[in-house]
Structures are given as structure tokens and as C-alpha cells.
Design a protein that fits this description.
Structural class: alpha+beta
Largest sheet: 7 strands, mixed
Radius of gyration: 26 Å
Number of helices: 16
Distance between the termini: 23 Å
Helix content: 25-40%
Strand content: 25-35%
Oligomer: single chain
Shape: globular
């Protein structure tokens, strides 16, 4: 758990802690700009980096000791007192101030401020978490490549110029070349991983890796039947390890050819359900067009009813993927239009990647997805704040009573990050330091339930300049982008734009360290503001999601799940 500052900033609720922010009000179908006083942005930001699940400090097979009134768990930072009657000891929760009794085995339990609680043997969990090998022989999850082979994938794209001669290949050939390169690399670094290939056009063809369970589905009734597809997927024999199936996979990819329309929705659901028995698997879908056959069809996409049906299907796919512990990534080939507003939500909600990609860059995109290891499934993160603090929600700024909250993360990868802001609901802070507690509950690839408890102690300052003196702009900027993206995703486009304007103003008035490229980041924030303004200024009668182009949707999902890696790409 990281903080944007070395200090907790205890602001004083005065007018000097407020700033003018642009607010947009819609009157008579026109945007009216006006100023509104809001609390000035500050450094009270926390960031959770789920890469921490790859590391371990202290592991125990004992049950955590929980407070009886709030989610907090006893750590070594708490003071234990003897009961007056001599029957064990007690502790007062630092977060809700409830008294709790200890007895028996728990009374002598070893405590730390960073503890992993696991039901398996300690040495097995330590071995499972602490893997830093160049060659991973233990990853036997499934990677399903889901490839669009519809007619539009035959469109030519320029790949290079050789001796005054321009070289063109089809979108499909570019996709095949990129996959072939990644298969070779996977066989070297993850020899036991299982790779399957599925293609979709007017029908879908689950090829696996060519040994067993090839399944072709042409029947339109099946392509429109969610329950039948959910039954077919888990019954398919899993692909063999890539070390023994590489040649078959290469042959399958090379033989892929164009086949009509775009049964994208059924293919996505089948590929996902085929991973149901292998927690920590990935589905990578590559397409250049809009789903127009079977479930999830996005044609004639003009009414609220059309949008509702599409949303329900793709929401179901992402919910189902999180239930089985599978991450889905969506790559839209540039030049097409595939309705990322719906399709991209599946990737965003399973912590996969969403991008619009030049066909020549597909190899790098595949590589980035494959290298981003899944570190936990069924992930839930609970943050507990001390008395006098609350978790800020921009949708309900007047609610200052929530001092703990659980966030459903789903499937988390090593690059997954989540941020939050916190505030003070009192000026009467009598201590010079406070603690924050993070509780991460998740399952590993073996299905074992694990709890990670991390406690962070921070000093308090009432001096804004001191709080901002060594500001971590990585943490601060990731949070600003995520907050804007979440508001945007919830349909609060005007509020998201207002939030991003405040963030840009904050950036413009802060000196940056040499390791942080202010200009590039400010430009990225400015570009997002422009995109939000474009959406705000679109007064057509179409529903909001129907108005979102793929580029607008890509901006939304990128910022919703913004992470440190995105900053590195900017700088």
C-alpha cells in the first residue's frame, strides 16, 4: 500500500482549503459553464498495487484475529493488555475503538504488520508466492486466442517499405504472424502452459491445439443459446502443454482463413467457459469489426432496448469470467469499429487489457498481455481508516461516515492497481500519527483461500507544503486518472471533466521531480479533458453509450483501470 505523500495531511476545512472548479450545467440542451467552490485537491491518496501478492514476508496457517465490530485484523502494532481477572488478554481496536478479548492459542500467536494467512502449509504457500524464475514450469493455466476471421479481416495493411516497394498483408495475416511469434516465446518461458485457438466468422471453430475436442458450431440456435454454450465449453478437453503441442499450434494458426460474418459474442463466451476448470487463465480476443451473429450482436444498435440486451450479455460474460478466475483482453484492430463501449467493458471488469492496435503492433500487445501474470482470483480488498477519517466518494461527497470499505477487484494481475482518496470528518485530531489497514482476500491458482493483511503507519502534518514536499506523483496521477475514469464509466461525464480539470490545474502548479515527465502527463490529462468535453458537447438524441466511438471507449477503460505502466508509456 503506497501513499502520495510521506504524511497524512490534516486540512482545516477553511476557505483557504477550497478552490474554484469549472462546473458544467446542462440547461435547454446547452452546456453552461460556471464556477463552484470545492475542497482543494491534496495528497491524501492511497494506492494498492496487487503485485504485492507475488511477494511474502510472514506466513501463518492460523486464523486471523478480527475485531468484533469492524473488519480490522490484529497486528503487531496493537497493544495487548492483561484482563483484570487473569483470563487471557485483550486489545482495543485502533480503528473503531472496540475492546476485544483474546484467549487460548490466539493469546500467544505471533503477530506482524504484514502477514499472509493461508490454510495450506506455510512452506507450500511461501514457495507458491515467491517465484522469480525466468522459466516457469508450474504455470499450467490456459491461454485461449480468439481470432476474428470475418471478411473484413482480409483488408490489406501496409507493413513495410523495401527498396521503394510497399509491402502489404491482410489484417488476418498480421494477426497470425504476431500469434506465431508469441507461441515460440511461450514454449520457452512457460513450457507447461496450455494454448488453444478459436476462430470466429459466421460460425465458430474451437480448434484447441489440434489434438482433441475440436468443436465447430454453425447452428444459429446454439449461437444464440447462452446455456448451451456454457455447457459445451467446460466439456471440451483442455489443450496439451505447449511444449508438446507447439508444432500443431503453428499449423493451426497458419491455416486460419476468412469465413464470412462476425459471431464474436458466442466465441467469447465459449472460449471463456472452456477455461472454467483452470483458474488464472486468459482469453485474448482480436477483432476488427462489430459482433453481428448470435449472442451479443451489436448491429441495429440505436435503441435503449438494444443497449440493455448487449450490456446484459457482456456484463454476464465478465461476471462469469471473474467467477471462474479468467482474465479477458480485447484488442481492436485500428481502422474498424467494434463497439468497444460494450466489448471493452468485459476486459476492464476482468482486469484484462483494452486497446485499439495497429496490426503491425499486435506482437507487442500480445506480449504485454501474456507477461502480465495473474496473481490472484476472487480478489476483494478492504481498506480500514482510523477514527476521524473517511473514504471519499465523489458521487456522495456529503457522506463522511464510511471509514472502511470493501472493493471487489475480481481477477488481479501483477500490474493491477486500485486507488482511493480519504478525508477528515473532524478537525480534532489529537495524535501525531495514524494507521491504515489493507486486507486482501483472494484465491491462488490452486484454489486456496488466502488473506494478506498490511498495515501502514503515517505521521500527520497540518502544513500543506510539508505534505506536498516529496509528493509521489506516480501515486497521485494514477489516482486522478482512475477517479475521472470511474465517474466517466458511471455516466457522470460533466463531473469527470470537472475532476480532470482540477487535476490538471494541480499538476500545472506543482514542481515535478526529474523522474516524472510533467509535460507528457499534463498532455495526457488534457487529452482526456478534450475527449470528455467532446462527449459533453454531443447533444444528439442517441443514448450515451451509442454515441461513444471506439476511441472514446478506449480512453474511458484505460483511465478507469489506469496504472503505473500507463505512466511509463507516457514518459
Amino acid at each position: 500500500m503506497e501513499s502520495a505523500s510521506l504524511f497524512v495531511y490534516a486540512y482545516n476545512h477553511s476557505e483557504s482549503e477550497e478552490s474554484d472548479e469549472d462546473e458544467v450545467v446542462v440547461l435547454d440542451n446547452k452546456n453552461i459553464n460556471r464556477k463552484k467552490r470545492r475542497r482543494a485537491l491534496d495528497t491524501n491518496v492511497l494506492k494498492i498495487n496487487f503485485k504485492c501478492l507475488q511477494e511474502v514476508k510472514f506466513v501463518t496457517s492460523l486464523e486471523p484475529i478480527k475485531c468484533s465490530q469492524c473488519p480490522a485484523i490484529l497486528t503487531s502494532n496493537e497493544t495487548l493488555l492483561n484482563n483484570l481477572d487473569g483470563t487471557g488478554r485483550k486489545w482495543q481496536c485502533s480503528y473503531c475503538e472496540t475492546g476485544n478479548s483474546l484467549s487460548g492459542e490466539k493469546d500467544s500467536m505471533q503477530l506482524a504488520d504484514d502477514t499472509t494467512y493461508a490454510s495450506e502449509k506455510t512452506e507450500e504457500i511461501s514457495k507458491d508466492i515467491d517465484k522469480k524464475k525466468e522459466i516457469d514450469n508450474e504455470d499450467d493455466s490456459i491461454i485461449n486466442f480468439c481470432i476474428d476471421v470475418s471478411g473484413s479481416m482480409g483488408q490489406s495493411v501496409m507493413t513495410s517499405k523495401e527498396e521503394n516497394k510497399t509491402v502489404y498483408v491482410s489484417r488476418l495475416d498480421a494477426t497470425k504472424a504476431a500469434i506465431l511469434n508469441q507461441l515460440e516465446e511461450l514454449s520457452k518461458v512457460k513450457p507447461n502452459i496450455k494454448v488453444g485457438i478459436t476462430t470466429f466468422g459466421s460460425s465458430l471453430d474451437y480448434k484447441g491445439n489440434g489434438f482433441f475436442s475440436r468443436k465447430k458450431i454453425r447452428d444459429k440456435l446454439v449461437l444464440n443459446d447462452k446455456q448451451k454454450l456454457l455447457k459445451i465449453g467446460p466439456r471440451l478437453s483442455p489443450p496439451q502443454a505447449i511444449k508438446s503441442s507447439l508444432s500443431n499450434l503453428i499449423a493451426i494458426v497458419k491455416k486460419c482463413h476468412l469465413k464470412g460474418m462476425t459471431a464474436l459474442g458466442p466465441a467469447l463466451l465459449l472460449c471463456t467457459s472452456a477455461t472454467a476448470k483452470y483458474r488464472g487463465s486468459k482469453v485474448i480476443l482480436c477483432t476488427d469489426g462489430m459482433a453481428n451473429v448470435g449472442l451479443g450482436s451489436l448491429v441495429n444498435y440505436t435503441s435503449e432496448d438494444d443497449i440493455r440486451k448487449a450490456e446484459e450479455f457482456y456484463r454476464f460474460v465478465s461476471t462469469y469470467a471473474n467467477e471462474i478466475g479468467t482474465s479477458i483482453s480485447i484488442l481492436a484492430i485500428s481502422g474498424g469499429e467494434c463497439r468497444l463501449a460494450e466489448l471493452g467493458s468485459v476486459a476492464a471488469n476482468t482486469n484484462g487489457q483494452v486497446n485499439i492496435v495497429d496490426p503491425n503492433d499486435l506482437g507487442e500487445e500480445f506480449k504485454a498481455i501474456l507477461q502480465d501474470s495473474i496473481v490472484g482470483t476472487h480478489v476483494r480488498a478492504t481498506v480500514v481508516l482510523p477514527k476521524g477519517f473517511y473514504i471519499r466518494d465523489y458521487m456522495a461527497l456529503d457522506n463522511k461516515s464510511i471509514f472502511h470499505k470493501t472493493f471487489d477487484i475480481g481477477t488481479a494481475t501483477a500490474s493491477t492497481e486500485f486507488t482511493l482518496e480519504y478525508g477528515l470528518n473532524t478537525t480534532n485530531i489529537e495524535t501525531d500519527s495514524v494507521k491504515f489497514q489493507l486486507i486482501i482476500e483472494y484465491k491462488n491458482k490452486k484454489g486456496s483461500s488466502i488473506i494478506r493483511v498490511i498495515e501502514k503507519q503515517m505521521k500527520i502534518t497540518r502544513d500543506r507544503k510539508k505534505a506536498e514536499e516529496k509528493i509521489d506523483m506516480n501515486v497521485w496521477t494514477v489516482n486522478a486518472m482512475q477517479q475521472g475514469g470511474r465517474l466517466h464509466e458511471r455516466g457522470n461525464v460533466h463531473l469527470a471533466a470537472s475532476k480532470m480539470r482540477a487535476a490538471k490545474s494541480y499538476l500545472d502548479h506543482r514542481p515535478m521531480s526529474s523522474s516524472f515527465s510533467k509535460n507528457f502527463v499534463a498532455q495526457a490529462v488534457g487529452d482526456y479533458i478534450d475527449a470528455l468535453d467532446d462527449e459533453c458537447n454531443d447533444h444528439s438524441s442517441a443514448p450515451l453509450k451509442a454515441k461513444r466511438s471506439d476511441q472514446r471507449s478506449k480512453n474511458l477503460f484505460t483511465n478507469m483501470n489506469f496504472k503505473s505502466q500507463n505512466l511509463k508509456e507516457l514518459c
